[in-house]
Design goal:
It is built from 6 helices and 9 strands; from the N terminus they run E-E-H-E-E-E-H-E-H-E-H-E-H-E-H. By secondary structure, it is an alpha/beta fold. The protein has a 6-stranded parallel beta sheet with strand order 4-3-2-1-9-8, covered by helices on one side. A 3-stranded parallel beta sheet has the order 5-6-7, with helices on one face. The chain is globular. The N and C termini lie close together (11 Å).
């Protein structure tokens, strides 16, 4: 079965607010002290964005009361409070329908990775993430890097889970050109054929604004063709 794909737009791409609202378009939100006005762009009526995550279990203050941006909690790394934090939000009336887990666990801390062994992640998942399934929450698999090590780590994770980690969708990270992105998406799709795919981080990094916009246009058109 062909994987569907949910497109995640990085906040470095200003063209996003000129597009039609879409459930495929979300934001990885990191507050920018130099440009606080950006928050109004992401949450504006003309923004294409409909959801966001912030690498944390609780929503950002800027969008606490937003009727437009749906919050997706994330278990970034080691935690023994994630389940309680998300459950508390749900019991308070928050509409939590998806969660993310483990940001680049195969990567090092210098690049933002949570850097943890697959067997440890499997243990934490079963304690802090899997129980949310009973509350109707859909679970995102660990968001590994786009390197070959990411595939190895994820395979080891599911092996260590011994069938007890029932992920509903698989996040994808990619940094590089469009050809590499398309190839990586195809490889993930072929490896995890029965899982919905979310591209939760991607960019052609260290490029000019014009080159970044061209990359965004090409990649978003590609993603929109995938159902």
């Amino acid at each position: 079965m062909r994987s569907s794909l949910l497109l995640h737009i990085l906040s470095i791409l200003p063209i996003v607010y000129s597009q039609r609202s879409s459930p495929k378009r979300g934001l990885v939100y990191v507050p920018n002290e130099n440009h606080p006005g950006d928050d109004d762009i992401w949450d504006s009526a003309s923004s294409a964005l409909t959801w966001y995550y912030n690498y944390q279990a609780t929503p950002s203050e800027s969008f606490q009361d937003s009727p437009k941006l749906h919050f997706v909690p994330m278990l970034w790394g080691q935690s023994n409070t994630f389940l309680d934090e998300v459950t508390s939000q749900i019991e308070s009336g928050a509409n939590i329908t998806y969660v993310l887990a483990f940001n680049e666990p195969d990567g090092g801390g210098s690049t933002g990775g949570s850097s943890m062994p697959a067997d440890m992640a499997a243990e934490i998942w079963q304690r802090e993430v899997e129980p949310l399934k009973e509350l109707g929450v859909k679970l995102g698999a660990p968001a590994v890097t786009g390197s070959p090590n990411g595939f190895v780590w994820l395979r080891n994770f599911f092996t260590a889970c011994e069938g007890n980690c029932s992920a509903d969708f698989i996040p994808v990270h990619w940094y590089g050109n469009f050809e590499g992105l398309a190839s990586h998406v195809g490889q993930v799709n072929a490896t995890y054929q029965n899982m919905t795919m979310w591209v939760t981080e991607y960019a052609n990094n260290d490029q000019s604004l014009e080159e970044s916009q061209s990359f965004y246009n090409q990649s978003s058109e590609f993603f929109d063709r995938i159902e």
